[in-house]
Every structure is written in structure tokens, then in C-alpha cells.
UniProtKB/TrEMBL annotation:
UniProt keyword Transit peptide, yes or no: no
Any coiled-coil regions, as ranges: none
GO molecular function, one term: symporter activity
Top-level division of the source organism's lineage: Eukaryota
Stated family: Belongs to the major facilitator superfamily. Sugar transporter (TC 2.A.1.1) family.
Transmembrane residue ranges: 12-31, 74-94, 106-128, 163-184, 196-215, 277-301, 313-335
GO cellular component: membrane
Entry annotated with the keyword Transmembrane: yes
CDD domains recorded: MFS_STP
Organism in which the protein naturally occurs: Glycine soja (Wild soybean)
Upper taxonomic lineage: Eukaryota, Viridiplantae, Streptophyta, Embryophyta, Tracheophyta
The name this protein goes by in its record: Sugar transport protein 1 isoform B
Cellular location(s): Membrane
Domain Major facilitator superfamily (MFS) profile stretches: 18-372
């Protein structure tokens, strides 16, 4: 096995500030991921936009299947439209990132999210909710495509894992804050607290846009667009040393190799790239297929279906959400010491143990398992 090249350089303040600022884009994704499930469990929101769901909830017998009350295609469209537009935006944003740079893609994504959050916060009809969600999804797709690349390119190799996971930390903080806001806003403004829950997503997005304007382009992005001298000057700034020739040559070589690939999608199917392709697809697929993100997204609704009240279900989501930033912070501290593979194994084993536990009849026991 080849020994990784160790480039000279330090963890400069410029790198720390730029990576943290860029990674704060995860607040956008995390906040919306956490806020939507709570809002759709609020009676005032359902009564205004989904009266049929609210009527089912009000008239349902105690012995009936409580989950059926949320069976609405329009309600499903409200929640899923974000992910549909995020999928399309994620594919299209790769071209924008190459042509305009990572920073420009982050700015575009942040502006879309500001517009979507405000449209949802001031919504008076279903179409405003749906269009707002589509804008949110487009913003999330742009941010998720550009931020991890930007952080990886700016971070020194020794701290790349920890700095890259700041994006995930921002996502978990966003989920926790959204759950907390849902709980406190659910009983204020004469039942209109859901407007604050949805609309306040514009706040982190606004700061993300302003911060993105202040961020420098990464050296790799500058090289891709032909600005070699500027790229080298930026590399000297972020590494805190003038001894950047080796790393700069590798950036040039990587950019040249990338430009020589005429048909990237066809190249991915070559046999020599097949292991990387399989892992790149299977790892995120099976992580999502565990259903853990579904539990996070629909936590308030799931708790209501097993017998919790409206406020109790929102508080339960807060408790679950509070564990995510803590576990992510632990991962940040150990990832560069023990490696990504070790965290994969530990996280997978923990999920397996929790998901093969026998079904539990008590809602409080189920609550404890979900927290794990």
C-alpha cells in the first residue's frame, strides 16, 4: 500500500474560518429536515392546509390505526417535493460547480433557500407551500453538492476528515434547533407558530449567502477555470507556508487528468473503476435504507402514532435530536486518529444492534431505542 503524500503546511485561521463558514450550509439542510416533520404534526397547520387529515385525526377512534390519519397524497407531496428538487439540483449543480466554482454554487443555493423559507413562512395556500419546498430542495441540492467539495479542497490533509465532518455537525445542529423551535412555537401566535418554524429557516440561509460572498475560491476550483497564479497565491495563504509546490503540482495534474476525461459517465463504468463506483453507491444507499433518516424526519408523527400527545411528540423529537450533535462531535474528534473505516464499522454495528432488538410494546421503551 502506498504511503499518502504529506504536504507541508499548518492549520491556519483562514482555513478554519472558511471551512466553518462553508460547513454552516449544513444548517440549511438540517433545519428543514427537522422542521417539516414537526410542523406537519401541528393541529393548526393541518387544519389550515390539510383539513381532511385534521378531520381524520379529530374523529378517529382510539382503537383505530393512528397512522392512517396522515394518509394524504397532498401532504406527501408537501414533504417529498423538497427531495425531488434536491435530486435534480444535485445533478445539475455539478456542472455549475465546475463552470462557476464552488462558492458561486453555494451562493445560488443559499438564495434559493432564503426564498423558499420565506415563501413557506408567509404561505396562505398549498401552492405556496409546494413552490417553497421546491426552492428549498434546489438550495439544499446546490449546498450539498458544493460544500463538501469546497471544504475538502481547502482543508489540510491531516485535518480533512474533521473539517469535512463540520458539515455533518451543522446538519445535526440544524435538526436539533428545528425540533426545539417546533416545540416552543407550537402553542404561540394563536396557532400560527408554524409560520415561525418554517420562516426562520431563512435566517441561517441568509448568513450562509453573506458568508459565501466573503469566502475565497478554493485553489482546485481556480485551477479548473485557468487561474493558476491566483490559485497558487491562495494555496500559500491557506497553508501558511510558501512550500506549496508539491501540492500545487498535484492539483494541476489532477485538473489535467479530469479535463482529459471526455465521457465521465461512460468512464465510470470501466472495470478498473467498478469497486469505487459500487462503494460510492452502496454506502449511502444502505445508510439511507436503514430508515434512520425517516425516523428523524417523521419523529413527531411516529411518536403520535404510538400514543404520544402533540406536545409530547415534539419534545421527544427534541430529545432524539439532541444526541445527534454530540455523537457527531465525538466523531470529529476521533475520525483523523482512527480513520473513516473504524467509524463505519462502529456506527454500523450500533445501528444493527438497535434495529434487531425485539419489538417493544411500551412507547417509552421504543423512545429509548430510537435515541440509541
Amino acid at each position: 500500500m502506498e504511503t499518502p503524500i504529506k504536504y507541508p503546511g499548518n492549520l491556519t485561521l483562514r482555513v478554519v474560518l472558511t471551512c466553518i463558514m462553508a460547513a454552516s450550509g449544513g444548517l440549511i439542510f438540517g433545519y428543514d429536515h427537522g422542521v417539516s416533520g414537526g410542523v406537519t404534526s401541528m393541529d393548526s397547520f393541518l387544519k389550515q392546509f390539510f383539513p381532511s387529515v385534521y378531520e381524520k385525526e379529530s374523529n378517529m377512534k382510539p382503537s383505530s390505526n393512528k397512522y392512517c390519519k396522515f394518509n394524504s397524497q397532498i401532504l406527501t407531496l408537501f414533504t417529498s417535493s423538497l427531495y425531488l428538487s434536491a435530486l435534480v439540483a444535485g445533478l445539475g449543480a455539478s456542472s455549475i460547480t465546475r463552470m462557476l466554482g464552488r462558492r458561486a454554487t453555494m451562493i445560488i443555493g443559499g438564495i434559493c433557500f432564503v426564498g423558499g423559507a420565506l415563501l413557506n413562512g408567509f404561505a396562505v395556500s398549498i401552492w405556496m407551500l409546494i413552490v417553497g419546498r421546491l426552492l428549498l430542495g434546489f438550495g439544499i441540492g446546490c449546498a450539498n453538492q458544493s460544500v463538501p467539495i469546497y471544504v475538502s479542497e481547502m482543508a489540510p490533509y491531516k485535518y480533512r476528515g474533521a473539517l469535512n465532518m463540520c458539515f455533518q455537525l451543522s446538519i445535526t445542529i440544524g435538526i436539533f434547533v428545528a425540533n426545539l423551535f417546533n416545540y416552543y412555537f407550537s402553542k404561540i401566535l394563536n396557532g400560527q407558530g408554524w409560520r415561525l418554524s418554517l420562516g426562520l429557516g431563512a435566517v441561517p440561509a441568509f448568513f450562509f449567502v453573506i458568508g459565501s460572498f466573503c469566502l475565497p475560491d478554493s485553489p482546485s476550483s481556480l485551477v479548473e477555470r485557468g487561474h493558476h497564479e491566483e490559485a497558487k497565491r491562495e494555496l500559500v495563504k491557506i497553508r501558511g507556508t510558501t512550500e506549496v509546490d508539491a501540492e500545487f503540482r498535484d492539483i494541476l495534474a489532477a485538473s489535467e487528468a479530469s479535463q482529459n476525461v471526455k465521457h465521465p459517465w461512460r468512464t465510470l463504468m470501466d472495470r478498473k473503476y467498478r469497486p469505487q463506483l459500487v462503494f460510492a453507491i452502496c454506502i449511502p444507499f444502505f445508510q439511507q435504507f436503514t430508515g434512520l433518516n425517516v425516523i428523524t424526519f417523521y419523529a413527531p408523527i411516529l411518536f403520535r402514532t404510538i400514543g404520544f400527545g402533540s406536545r409530547a411528540s415534539l419534545m421527544s423529537a427534541v430529545i432524539i435530536g439532541s444526541f445527534k450533535p454530540v455523537s457527531t462531535l465525538v466523531s470529529i474528534l476521533v475520525v483523523d486518529k482512527f480513520g473513516r473505516r473504524t467509524l463505519f464499522l462502529e456506527g454500523g454495528a450500533q445501528m444493527l444492534i438497535c434495529q434487531v432488538l425485539p419489538p417493544l410494546s411500551s412507547p417509552h421503551q421504543v423512545h429509548a431505542v430510537w435515541i440509541l
